[in-house]
Amino acid sequence: MQLNRQTDYALRVLIFLTLKSHDDLVKLDEISKKFNIVRNHLTKIIAKLAKLQYIITQRGNGGGIKVHPNALELNLFEIMSKFESSFKSIDCTGINCPIAGMCKLEAILAEASGAYTSVLQKYKLKDVLPSNNNEQRIIFKSLDLI
Fold first, then answer.
1. What is the 3-state secondary structure (H, E, C) of 92-111?
2. Residue 112: is its pLDDT beyond 80?
3. CATH match for 5-142 among 3.40.50.720, 3.40.1580.10, 1.10.10.10, 3.30.43.10
């Protein structure tokens, strides 16, 4: 299953913000540079994350964003479904296909998609974070957080 770019960036932003101190506000420009995301595109993603109350925003001088503490308890499917229009792999309706009615591909892919979403529902945002301090130090160093 291929995620759209908006979903990919939204997840990266949330993970990055959870790795930062929960008290520190992060500037959009910092995220834009670290992940090489066009600022205009990032602004739209940040606005949606804020509307969903996954992040906290503070405007003005000294402002920025940080992850909402409750966001750590969200399952990955819940987050991703806000940015993906569908998790359906293939749609055979509305096309003139000579093997329609004989082919079972759509049903098989629907089953696979169900398994995919089931796994995503098992894991929370906090589950994708490093589990030990050594892993955390390596990530922090690579992201210039320390």
1. CCCCCCCCCCCCCHHHHHHH
2. yes
3. 1.10.10.10
